[in-house]
């Protein structure tokens, strides 16, 4: 008999211990991946600390944002955040699932919960950016109905931009 996986997703303060641990894991992974690809080394620990301190995720707090933490069988294992860019547009960010739990459906659940959170904030569309080397993320967004578009920002590492119109809640 197959065992059922257990994901729960709840809003959480960006500064909570679980949120900070997931942000550190996310940032370390994407930063290391970039540095290994382009410079042949991992992220310098001092740079990691500076960048983490500079981006606390405060924009993901109410009233204009939400940070969601996914727990797999009770253990923090993933995150997704949304923040309003304007009254009808929210940005999807910090979508992450711990490496050992990828393929368990957590990413799709986190994105769906983020879409619901964006609707609750009044957004009618979600936008996001990602890098070219994050092919898994690009495939996820395409699979979930996001369409690649032109740039909506000038972030240093943004290479691909996506958008999805959110269906109204019935």
TrEMBL record:
PROSITE patterns: GNAT (PS51186). It holds the Pfam family Acetyltransf_1. Keywords: Acyltransferase, Transferase. Residues 21-167 form the N-acetyltransferase domain. Gene3D superfamilies: 3.40.630.30. This is GNAT family N-acetyltransferase. GO terms for molecular function: acyltransferase activity, transferring groups other than amino-acyl groups. PANTHER family: AMINOALKYLPHOSPHONATE N-ACETYLTRANSFERASE-RELATED, AMINOALKYLPHOSPHONATE N-ACETYLTRANSFERASE-RELATED-RELATED.
């Amino acid at each position: 008999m197959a065992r059922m996986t257990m994901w729960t997703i709840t809003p959480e303060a960006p500064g909570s211990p679980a949120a900070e641990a997931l942000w550190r894991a996310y940032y370390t992974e994407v930063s290391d991946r970039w540095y290994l690809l382009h410079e042949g080394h991992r992220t310098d620990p001092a740079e990691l600390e500076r960048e983490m301190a500079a981006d606390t995720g405060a924009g993901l707090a109410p009233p204009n944002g939400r940070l969601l933490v996914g727990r797999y069988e009770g253990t923090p294992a993933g995150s997704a955040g949304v923040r309003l860019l304007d009254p009808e547009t929210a940005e999807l960010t910090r979508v992450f699932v711990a490496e050992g739990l990828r393929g368990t459906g957590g990413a799709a659940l986190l994105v769906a919960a983020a879409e619901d959170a964006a609707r609750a904030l009044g957004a009618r569309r979600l936008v996001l950016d990602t890098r070219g080397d994050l092919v898994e993320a690009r495939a996820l967004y395409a699979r979930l109905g996001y369409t690649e578009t032109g740039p909506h920002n000038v972030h240093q590492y943004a290479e691909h931009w996506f958008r999805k119109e959110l269906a109204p809640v019935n």
